[in-house]
Specification:
By secondary structure, the chain is mainly α. It has helices at residues 21-41, 60-86, 92-112, 122-141. The chain has four helices and no strands.
Length: 150
């Protein structure tokens, strides 16, 4: 059994879960950072070049603007992950929970309001791949429950 209270630990300096989880969180942080910078810096925000959204229509530049703003939100998510990795390692379980909820939300919103494109963008598959990995990593990031505590 794992201790779910470690998601919001009293000691934010020390990580107490499985030792491989910070390495996985580093990889996750690199991916989130790169993804966010693509949305912010790429000329089309990745909308046409990656997601294959037709921008040659009235308001097409609005889609690019929304993608760039979305990239900023992702960059803020990445910053929280980097802060946990570099300074507050005890918050790694919280970072994994936030990213798990992000993946669940992307899947739910994507099903409720699907993109009208020929082929789904990489993120559509990535969320499904990330979901079990993040769930397992979150579980393993929690320290074992203390059997002496009621």
């Amino acid at each position: 059994m794992r201790n779910p209270s470690a998601i919001l630990p009293h000691d934010t300096q020390h990580y107490r879960g499985d030792p491989w989880i910070p390495h996985l969180t580093t990889i996750l942080s690199i991916i989130i950072t790169a993804r966010s910078l693509i949305h912010i810096l790429r000329h089309d925000g990745g909308a046409a070049s990656i997601a294959r959204i037709d921008l040659d229509l009235p308001g097409g530049q609005n889609i690019v603007a929304i993608f760039a703003q979305w990239g900023l939100e992702q960059l803020l998510l990445a910053a929280i992950a980097w802060l946990a990795l570099l300074r507050y390692r005890g918050l790694i379980p919280l970072v994994l929970l936030i990213n798990l909820l992000d993946a669940v939300g992307r899947i739910a919103v994507g099903r409720a309001k699907p993109l009208q494109v020929e082929k789904p963008p990489p993120g559509a598959y990535g969320s499904w791949i990330a979901l079990p990995i993040l769930a397992f990593a979150l579980w393993r990031s929690l320290p074992p429950a203390d059997p002496k505590r009621p």
